[in-house]
Amino acid sequence: MDAMCSGPKKKRTIQTVTNNNVSALGKGNLRFCDGTINAEKFLDMFGKLKGLLSGPRVPEATGTPGVAPDPAPDPAPKPVPPPAPEKEEKPADKENEAKKVDKPQESTPAPAPAPVPAPAPAAAPAPAPATAAPANPDQAGPEGEEAAPPPPPPIVINKYSDEQLRAVAKRMRDRLQLYKEKVTDQYASSPEISPPVTPLLGKDRYAKVIEERERQAEEERIKKEEAEKKKKEDQEKKKKEDEQKKKEEEEKKKAESKDEKEEKKVETMEDKKAKLIAAAWSSVDVLLKPIEDMMDSVVGKTIDPFTDRRYIAWLSLVTLAFNYNTWFITARLCFPYHTESAIPYWVALDLLADLIYLTDSIIFQPRKQFVKGGDIIKDRVLTKKNYRDTDRFMTDTVCLLPLDLLYFQFGFKSIFRANRLLKADTFFEFSDRLESIMAKAYIWRVIRTIGYLLFMLHINACFYYVASAYQGIGKTKWVYSGLGSAYLRCYYYAVRSLINIGGLNEPHTVFEITFQMTNFFTGIFVFSSLIGQMRDVIGAATAGQTYFRSSMDNTVAYMVTNHIPSMVQNRVRTWYTYTWDAQGMLDESELLDKMPLVMRTAIAVDINLTTFQKIDLFKGCDQQMLVDMLLRLKSIVYLPGDFVVKKGDIGKEMYIIKSGAVQVVGGPDNSIVFVTLKAGCVFGEISLLQSSKDGGNRRTANVKAYGFANLFVLEKKDLFDILIHYPESQKVLARKGRKLMKAKGPAAAKVEEEKKKGLALFGPKPPTPKLLRAVGGTINKRMIDKMKSATGAPAPAAAPAAAPAAAPAAAPAAAPAAAPAAAAGADPANPEGAEGEEAPPPPPVVYFRYTDDTLRNVMKMLRERTQMLKEKVVDPYATSPEITPPVTPILKKEDYIKLKEEERIAKEEADKKKVEEAAKKAEEKKIKDEEKRLEAEKKAEEERLAEEARKKAKILPDISCSCFDVLFHPIEEKMDTILGSTIDPFTDRRYIAWLAFVAVAYNYNVWFCSARLAFPYHNATTNPYWIFCDILSDVVNVIDIMVWQPRLQFVKAGDIIKDRAMTKVHYRKSQRFRTDIISILPFDLVCLHFEFSSIYRLNRFIRFESFFEFSDRLESIMAKAYIWRVARTTGYLLYMLHLNACIFYVASVNQGLASTTWVYDGKGTAYLRCYYFAVRSLINIGGLPEPVTTFEISFQMANFFIGVFVFSSLIGQMRDVIGAATAGQTYFRASMDGCVAYMNTYTIPKQVQNRVRTWYNYTWAAQGMLDESELLDKMPLVMKTAIAVDINLVTFQKIALFQGCDQQMLVDMLLRLKSIVYLPGDFVVKKGDIGKEMYIIKSGAVQVVGGPDNSIVFVTLKAGCVFGEISLLQSAKDGGNRRTANVKAHGFANLFVLEKKDLFDILVHYPESQKVLARKGRNLIKAKGPAAAKTKEERQKGLTLFGPKPPTPKLLRAFANLRKLKNAENLKRE
Fold first, then answer.
1. pLDDT one-digit tens code per residue, 967-1004
2. 3-state secondary structure of 658
3. Banded model confidence at residue 263, pLDDT cuts 50, 70, 90
């Protein structure tokens, strides 16, 4: 043990170490290594221990009586002293004696216990002096009486001490072995000494090490010599290279000096030129200074070229001048248009165009602002300099060179104005600026594309005339004949040649053939480019509509495939239709995501920042944080009656009403409307801060859409992601959130808060365990005895039998106070007491200072508590330090709790009344505000209507329909029983069927009125039939106007108006009503005065809105809407041909039937022949008769142009329609082809390739798509939820694992499901694999198989079954998440998969369901889990829970023997 205190000592014997250990264990209050051990006491104790270890001995004849320990002081003098109390063993001693083994003691060194810090001197107890026992315990004392043996110190042996002493004994053995090694080997390492820098070696090893070191030193010396040699060589090389570089640099300097001299000469020349140019421009600026100053007041000093509308208007004039030069210079250059009468007009137009060019270059272009290094330069001097330094200025200068002056030398020829064509940049700039400000830019794109085509034809016509003049006009049939208008005939040739119509005259010469072939090739390029341009223009214009149609078609096909109920299908169709009508797009986020952050922020701030600033929860937050929140908002449209939130659902988002309204409803059937929230209101914001603990994030009310409601949604996750960057706002939200939750939170929160007051803060006392009650009974009894002894209570003298048991129990507590008294009252001459009485046992030795202090403090507290309770007996109003001084007398615990509960209930009722009164006042105020708002809106509406009436009174007087209402009232009442009071125009199939009749009537008027107007179809025979059909179509229109249209429901501010009176008023105030009234005005009655003609029915054409409405409604209900789109596009083409046929017949009549070969000859069916001509003309088939007159040529060219436009538009429309219809199939084919190409690239085996192809083909055939999630992700949450619930909710509710869970949680799980198709024989799961998902069989079947080759089928699971759900809750510990069986697909199996990660993400919001799942999961794991788990669990029972008992250290066994010997002596003495 000294080795542990002061380092190793070589000559310390084992016996000394043992003696030290024994003395340490015998006296707990002594410390090792401090040098303060009393030698006399140490020797006495060691002699006593030696006598006990050597066994009983014969007492010597003469001996010195042993010194007995000091007796304990008596509390009071007694006439008869009590007998010496016997030492009572503690329960721990009795229990641990059974564990000790009786073996002889070995002299094993033991470690010293850790030194305990000395306590304060005032608090340290005075230890009682102890004396050693006699060597022979049986030796009698004076006067022939046996002296009582001193009691051994109380040794507590427990498991922890056992292990510690065993570890100490092991270390001591290791230390002894180390000392033995040190005696034999002085170089053996010691744990107390740090290892030396160099090891100490033996002779042989030392010689080898010395040799190795010498060899290494020699090698290092050789290396250093080689390195020095190499260094010298490198230095010599470097010197040579430096000399060579110096020579080269000198030569370069000489050459550079020569170049600098030459450059200086050039620079001087350039400087002179620059100075001359600057001087010239300065003179020009001086001349133009008055004009510029005058224009500054009109245009401004500088112009923004992107946003200034005046500049764009000016660019239109420059574009006109450019087009004049481009078209007429080429025409005047080729055609003989320079005559004496025309030259003055050409000169005037040329001067006007040049003036526009000059004004642009002098006034507008130098004022254009520009960007330099990101800065917008607005300084006039800098903008002028920037313009003059650009290439555009050089181009503009060349354009303005007056080459026209050469007219005087060479004659009036437009070739000298060819430089004006260089100003093409202005035209393209104007085109870009016009597109940027137009709302429908595709119109300008179409016009520009047609302009390109016309100019190409113009250039070709010019070339054709030049070629004809070169060949000789009229010399061959191919060239221009010289008859008629030269430009018109050549342009007609160019149209037929470039558009490849055919029917041209055959070229004869080589020049003619070459020219014609070049024309054909150019025409192919031009025509294909035109078709591509038109397709792109039309595709870009209808991209949104195409995307909408494609999404809706795919969704309808998906719902039909999965047999979704018709009600859900109708709601989905209604959502698509309304969203497209209201927004013009399905998802605003897709459009906004393509915009830069600055633009998105500007739009979001303009729309919603004011609303956000009004929310109480966000007042005082950082403005930038609010802007970040605005960017996370998502727009969702809810249909009428859709529940936005339901009571009891988990709240994960807040809502802002963008348009429409929502209602907070309640009652048994949600028929009670508590409040209606309009646009700009906010709800659900409390759920953003509430946690899922104790259901704090549950919704407290039902909120449903009142009409069509467009809401902005902010999710809790997005808010938390934002708050990371705003700690101050986070604190503000936390503080305000607590206040809002107190004010608006559920009553349960208040109840729980009120409960946590007073004594109710302490929960019910848990029952005391049985074992603790058994042990605690004795402890309490002893503690009461200690309290009595501490307060001066009389000792139990009347109970001698109980004294031995009571004395040891009271001794530990009274030791600090009793020890000094014992020392003072003891008589050293007679240690055994007067009259031969046995001395009382000595006070117990203190082993742990900390325990001693703790017990002392406990005793002090108990005394204070006793004194306080005594005072309370006298004065019940005495204060208690643990309880705040009460205003009223202290009550019993039950009475106090009852009183507090009554106070809480009273306060709760008072708060409830206050809340009800506040809610009533708020409701009254809200009603008043609503009434005021309605009155204001009504007044504003009346003023608006009055203003509109004043404006329209001059054009069209209001139509009073009161008389018609009276007349048609019986009919309307009768129709109410059939149609209902109002009609939903989106979903009512009866209305769509009626629209079909209206569309037929409209098509009758559109087709037959135009045909009857052009062709001679009015005669006495056919007129009655025409009159009947006309009346029938008019009746349909009248019924539609009087019966159907006034019943149509409409949306106003998101609300669906279903009141009949309001729908009627709304229709009659709409523009459609006026159009419908004009369309049925009976102009046919004029036929009674004039001849019968269909021209009086042309007003029926304006009812085209009914046709387009029918088209949209039909698309929304058709499963394959692309069929109707193809039919509609074909109908447009046929109608264009129909109109062309009518116009051709009218033109033929105007020219004279059969007057030329081009017109209709009057034979056969007129309509059919004219329609045939229209088909050949518009579709550019060719082979038409040659037009002769100018009218015929112009008509034919117009036909060709219209045909090109119609044909290209038709191709674009059909491409979009067919592309939208086959988008899914195209994606499937592209995916499959890409996959096959990938497999071929990496030479995947054919068997795998065939399985992949089979998977693609089956998935497409079964689902009509490869991934359902791509389609469903585009739908709103409400629609996705409706479809998912219809497909899988019933199946989920049947799963035993999820029974009893929150229904909303099941719905959230449904939205996380993924569909996977397995081929026949595919293993879904394999035995031993890690389980991370569960499966629901959507269609097909799977088999649970086993056996050596998996040929044994245990069970077959069909559609609707579930497997793998246990793996969602099992952990990876001990392989608990391993699959226990093989499951493979039996045929094609379509499965829904739910991953464990998705389940855990959902369970965060559902703590109650989490507990249910945990409980059910444990039960299911016990029932279905692997047998290994049960075996291990059952193994942990009984005594097997404890490992094998470690052997008791020898030193402890020695002390056990000591205790047994002592007990034996006590028994003998008794």
1. 777 888 888 888 888 888 877 889 989 999 999 999 99
2. strand
3. confident
Instruction: Write the CA distances from 574 to 556, 1217, 1281, integer angstroms.
Output: 12, 22, 16
The residues, any chain, with a CB within 8 Å of residue 997's CB and separated by 6 or more, are: 1036
Q: How far apart are CA 700 and CA 684, in angstroms?
A: 10
> 1273: buried, middle or exposed (CB in 10 Å: 19+, 13-18, 0-12)?
exposed
Q: How far is CA 798 from CA 73, 802, 836, in A?
A: 18, 9, 21
CB 538 within 8 A of CB 1209: yes
Q: Which residue has the tokens 């430009």?
A: 487
In degrees, to the nearest 5, what angle opens at C-alpha 722 toward C-alphas 720 and 726? 105
Indicate the Cα dihedral angle 620, 626, 628, 631, nearest 10°: 170
Give Dmax over CA atoms of the chain in angstroms.
175
CA–CA dist 1054, 706 (Å, integer): 8
Read off the pLDDT of each residue in 706-726 and give the average, rounded to a whole number.
84
The pLDDT value given to residue 107: 42
Question: Coil, helix or strand for 375?
Answer: strand
How far apart are the C-alpha atoms of 581 and 584, rounded to whole Å? 6
Q: Say whether 389 sits in a helix, a strand or coil.
A: coil
Residues in the chain, how many?
A: 1470
CA distance 459 to 72: 136
> Under 8 Å CB-to-CB from 1201, ≥6 apart: which residues?
450, 453, 454, 495
Tens digits of per-residue pLDDT, 224-236?
A: 888 888 888 888 8
Q: Which two tokens stand for residue 76?
A: 């009071």
Whole-number Å distance between alpha carbons of 150 and 131: 9
pLDDT in tens, 1410-1443: 888 888 777 766 765 544 444 444 444 444 444 5
Measured CA to CA, the distance from residue 1150 to residue 1164 in angstroms comes to: 19
Mean pLDDT of 906-934: 79
User: Residue 879: what pLDDT?
Assistant: 46
Q: Quick check: 1213 and 1222 in contact, CB under 8 A?
A: no
The answer to whether 1338 and 1357 have CB atoms below 8 angstroms apart is: no
Q: What are phi and psi for residue 70, nearest 5 degrees? A: -65, 135
Residue 231, CA distances (Å) to 235, 236, 237, 244 in order: 6, 9, 10, 20
CA angle 391, 396, 401 (to 5 degrees): 125
CA distance 1154 to 1161: 4
190 vs 193: CA distance, rounded Å = 6
- For CA atoms 1142, 1148, 1154, 1160, give the dihedral sign: negative
Give kind and range of the element (H or E) at residue 662: strand 653-666
Cβ-contact 1338, 1404 below 8 angstroms: no
Q: How far is the C-alpha of 1402 from the C-alpha of 1408, rounded, in Å? A: 12
CA distance 992 to 1118: 12
Section 874-884 average pLDDT: 47
- d(CA 1269, CA 450) in angstroms, rounded, equals 43
Q: Which of 662, 741, 661, 666 is nearest to 701 (CA)?
A: 666
Q: With pLDDT > 90 as the criterion, what percentage of the chain qualifies?
A: 11
